[in-house]
Amino acid sequence: IFLFLSLLPSLFLSFLSFSEWDVEKRSTCGQCDERLFCNCSSRNYRRVPTVTVTKVVTLDLSFNDITTVAEDDLREYTWLQTLDLRSNRIKSIHEWAFHLLQGLESLDLSYNQLAALTPAWFSKLLSLQHLNLLGNCYRTLGPGGTLSLFRYVTCKAGSQNAPKSQSSMYVMPCPTSHLLTQLEYLDLSGNLLTDLTLTESLCHGDGTLRNLRVLNVSDNALKSLSLISKLVTRLDKLVHLDISQNGYTSMPPTCSWPQTLTHLNVSGAKLRRVSPCLPLTLEILDLGHNDLTAFHSVALPALRELHLSGNKLMHLPPGWLFPSLEVLLIQSNTLNMFGPVDLQLYRRLRALQAGQNRFVCSCEFVYFMVWRWGGAVEGSVELTDRWDNYLCDSPLPLVDRVRLSPFQCHRILLVSALCGCTLAAGTLFVILLWKLHAVWYLRMMWAWLKAKRKAGNQRRRDAAGNAEPLCYDAFVSYSEQDAEWVEEFLVPELENSQPPLSLCLHKRDFLPGHWIIDNIINAMERSRRTLFVLSEHFVHSEWCRYGFILSCLTTIREYFSGSTIIH
Question: What is the pTM of this model?
């Protein structure tokens, strides 16, 4: 008792120092916001700190110096959904450390110093969807039941900056695959898997991963499509298979696939043709960025979406091969043209992307594209890419555009229409001239110009003393309807008067064979006066009007002696 009492002070002091150490290590992180996110990263914590928010949802403890996670460190974070513990120095985790985090969806333990995995860590994490365990120095993956807890596994390069040959995985041993009995998603993309090592990883196709639904082995060094089909044929629940960006150069005539496979991605390879190797159950097929020059004789009745961009196809695949197809992507190929006849073969097609091809811009193709963009065809296929992706590669005058003028497309029709319009306009113009007596005025103008020319010649002759003598006293201008009165009354009265007058009459004195206008002008020029018998018939006579107007013009010019009107 005496010994115990003597040691009691020292024990008490040790307890106090331990408590002070514990309080120091359990620091408080106050960097929390209204979204219940606590950013406790890069603060040199050596133990999991406490936080000022009682119902924290996201806790970031990355890039600290935490070495262990004790049983009680996370007891107060029952509302936690995301926990980030990456890039610490964690060597040990208590087996009950995560048991109260039943709502945890994302856990990141990457880049620590864990040497083994313990199934008890994850046994109560019923909501866990994302788990990152990269960058640890595992000597063992734990007991057999550890990996069987996981449904989603991603095995990729551990460092983004490291060369692929140093950081990628070559093989996942078959015994490891046997531990993944409940696995539904396996991502082995971006590694260095070959046909041989993939055969080992999938246990020679014995169906070990029987619950697998999604398998991604893209961007590896695989070369045999026949082998991959055999390795997955017994995976009875496989729905999605991504084998893109590998070295496939040919497709075998036949293949065996799971009956559940609906999504196949073989893009980014070097395939030159397709064969009946493709599974008939496919609903989505991606063959983009290969070297395909044709796609025919391979019927896929259940296919709903087909990706063929980045190949060398010159024509659309026959639509009757895909009775259920709804979406077709065929950009960046060598298509020359397509039209309504091609699209009618696709009974259910609703979306098409066919831009960035080498289109030969015929009139039919251009108008078809304009109608599609303009929505002129109801219920038709929709072009879902940009209109400026559809540019002409030929003919040369249309390079880099997709518009043709109406004259280029309908020359015969336009020429015919132009000629018809010209003829109609000419006819209307002639009718208008006739209605407005334009011909009469033109002929009158010609006569006046001719008379003016003759008048100028007459003045020059007068100045030279070579003037022609006047032969008549008067030129009588009258209508033929008034001829009886003129010939029986007017002419006898004037010619028999004292002194008698010499009259010029068109019936008697006009020169035969000469134009009547010339005769009228000559008669006026050779007469002292012009006598007009003005009547209703005179007004309606074309030649009488010519004579009257000419007389008025010459009278105004004061060249002839004058005109006399008898009404």
Answer: 0.59
Q: Which H helix or E strand runs over 566?
A: strand 563-566
The sign of the dihedral angle between the CA atoms of 192, 195, 201, 202 is: positive
**CA–CA separation, 445 vs 524, rounded Å?**
17
Distance CA 501, CA 493 (A): 9
Q: Summarize pLDDT for 216-239 with one digit per residue, the tens.
A: 999 999 999 999 999 999 999 999
359 is a domain residue? no
DSSP string, 141-177: --STTSGGG-SEEE---S-SSS-HHHHS-S---HHHH
pLDDT bin (cut points 50, 70, 90) of residue 303 is very high
- 258 in any annotated domain: no
Closest listed residue to residue 279, CA positions, set 308, 297, 295, 259:
259
For residues 270 and 287, what is the distance between their CA atoms, to the nearest angstrom? 10
- Residues 285 and 299 sit within 8 Å (Cβ to Cβ): no
Contact 528, 561 (CB under 8 A): yes
Q: Does the residue 521 lie in any domain?
A: yes
Do 356 and 332 form a contact (C-beta atoms < 8 A)? yes
Q: Is the N-terminal amide bond of 163 cis, ω within 30° of 0?
A: no
Tokens of 450: 């001719």
Q: Minimum mean pLDDT among 125-134, 145-154, 191-200, 241-250: which range?
A: 145-154
Number of domains in the chain: 2
- ω into 395 cis (within 30 of 0): yes
The model's pLDDT over 509-536, given as tens digits with 9 standing for 90+, comes to 888 877 777 787 788 778 888 888 888 8
Confidence of residue 151 (pLDDT cuts 50, 70, 90): low
Q: Write the single-letter amino acid at 292.
A: L
- CATH number of the domain bearing residue 75: 3.80.10.10
Among 91, 122, 138, the domain boundary falls at 138
What is the Cα–Cα distance from 405 to 370, expressed in whole angstroms? 13
* Per-residue pLDDT reduced to its tens digit, 39-62: 999 999 999 998 888 789 999 999
CATH code, domain with 529: 3.40.50.10140
**Could you tell me where the DSSP H helices lie in 79-202?**
119-122, 164-167, 174-178, 195-201
* Alpha-carbon distances of 109 from 101, 115, 543, 555, rounded to whole Å: 15, 12, 118, 122
